[in-house]
Amino acid sequence: MALRRKLKAQVLCAFLNFALSPGSEPHNRLAAHLPKEDEHEMEFDTATSVSQSPVKHPLPELEIYCYLLVLIYLIDQKKYSEAKACSSASVARLKNLNRRTVDVLASRLYFYYSLSYELTGDLAEIRGNLLALHRIATLRHDELGQETLLNLLLRNYLHYNLYDQAEKLRSKAPRFEAHSNQQFCRYLFYLGKIRTIQLEYTDAKESLLQAARKAPVAALGFRVQCNKWAIIVRLLLGEIPERTVFMQKGMENALRPYFELTNAVRIGDLELFKSVAEKFSTTFSSDRTHNLIVRLRHNVIRTGLRNISISYSRISLADVAKKLRLDTANPVADAESIVAKAIRDGAIDATIDHANGWMVSKETGDIYSTNEPQIAFNSRIAFCLNMHNDAVRALRFPPNSHKEKESAEKRRERQQQEQELAKHIAEEDDDEF
Amino acid sequence: MDPKLAEVSQLFERFKAACAREDVDTCCNVLSKLKVLLTGFSSLPPLFEDTPNAIHELTLARDIYEHAVLLSVKIGDQDAFERDFFQLKPYYTDASSRLPPSSQEYMILGLNLLRLLVQNRIAEFHTELELLSSTALENPCIKHAVELEQSFMEGAYNRVLSAKQTVPCKTYDYFMDLLAKTVRDEIAGCSEKAYGYLSVSDARQMLLFSSDNELLQYIKEEQPEWEIKTGQVIFQKAKESASCKEIPSLQLINQTLSYARELERIV
Predict the structure, then answer these.
(1) Which residues of chain A make contact with B122, given a CB cutoff of 8 A?
(2) Could you give the ipTM of this predicted complex?
(3) Minimal CB count within 10 Å: which of A220, A429, B112, B201?
(4) What is the pLDDT of residues A332-353, one digit of tens each?
(5) Would you tell me the crossing angle of helices A80-96 and A103-119 to the nearest 10 degrees?
(6) pTM of the entire structure?
């Protein structure tokens, strides 16, 4: 990052002149992207370097590195259309190179390629290219490239909300151990998003929380996004995230709308929920979480019902409708069906008396007389014991730490002794003959 | 005009006439012939070549597929609906920039959402919903389907059934009938758990039967556990209260042994 700040036009020109022989094709192409104010300086350099070295054969890695530097410079200067052109040229060049040593640089280049197109809003154009590059990377066993390109493709599909296609790609692409922590975090985040939309909330929660944990501390924006989605998934699962989640350093402002949303869900108040959703609707639409928030309505009603069922032993359905603030045409009948469904799903423990029109909550029996505590304890004990076993297995002792290191003299002494012993044995053999 | 294009247009006119006459067999035959002819055009997906007649061909193909979808609803064939809808989708998504918008687009999208709901494919329902723009979500056909899904999830089944009266177009009726049947099964399931008993007239009303006989037949076929006594439907047989529970000894023994084993391992 420190290098990135120092990237200025003159520095780049000087480096290009040093690395690539001026007048060569790559040099011309790259230099064309840099601003022309330093023309006289460039000419000066050209004159000197031409006199110095006849012909330089630059390593392909050096060339790709130059491409990368110019690309970063252009993006930092916000010259996105030029960055697009430069990145397309670099990708075309990369398709011809088949060297493993270029892989790491190549993956960075793919990333900036996709970034430059995204910043100009043309992501759909490069989808075909990215797919072809992914095929090539798989054929060449370029694992880092495969990882990067898979993430870029997923990002491409998710940008246009094409969750179906993203899932198809992800399930069919070859999987292997992650090489780069950052790419793995990104992959987990995209996976979490896809799972959320497909209503598989438990898997989604796991992926999103793992992504938020593994992400480097400096990646604040990424962690904020992960946390936003993780909060919504937890609300959809029916659990309320703790307050400390919202109070993490640097994320308080961004997570404020979600904090108020959690509050509304926790209280179980439909009116409050609706007002919060409307108040922050722009934030939610820009985060693309709007559809998920709509799904939360069901959870709000459930929580409200649960509160009512715990607090009242018997309550008329009309009062239930009023407390839940159901604003529909026929609230009592609605309330009755909603309560019936909640009972069937096991959310509340009650019965309905249709003739009198009220709901009777069942007494929660003494839970300690059942097997429940034993089962809960057992799962916790098993978890702790598993963790202990895993920790023991993961203990690694540094190799040879219990042997003291031989110093050079001791080694010489030992070798001398061994030689004498060998001579001695040889003499003994001779004696025997 | 291109002779192929002219032939397809003529055949399409015959198809529309057959549909208006409600002549299902002719419709199906003509439709198969049309589909074979459409493969001759290279401007259609998946090739999307830019021929001079491209716009005309694309519009014609889109109309043909829309009519195919509506025909499949009329004959009640859900698989055909799914096939034709998948063929129609690229016209709405990829070719939408080149063609003028179709008047029936939202209705067909709404029909598809309804079909996914009836088949209980909620994950795909939501995936499709993500693809819709915010203007699409304002359209009454689509809004109807979305609100239906919400009521279904919340459990307000009476709202689902009353929505049957407020369908935006007649073609929705087929799916609404299927939905009514699903809803009835759901209501039966919920009532079983929620009510101890219900009078026969109340049960009839809730399950939307028009006469007591239908109700009795339904109970005999679908719900053999329900008993009918003195004009009331009893849902749950009287359970013995506070049955003395056996201690699950085998499970406890297994657990304790595993604790002992693990503890021994700790050095």
Answers:
(1) 199
(2) 0.75
(3) A429
(4) 888 888 888 888 887 788 888 8
(5) 150
(6) 0.76
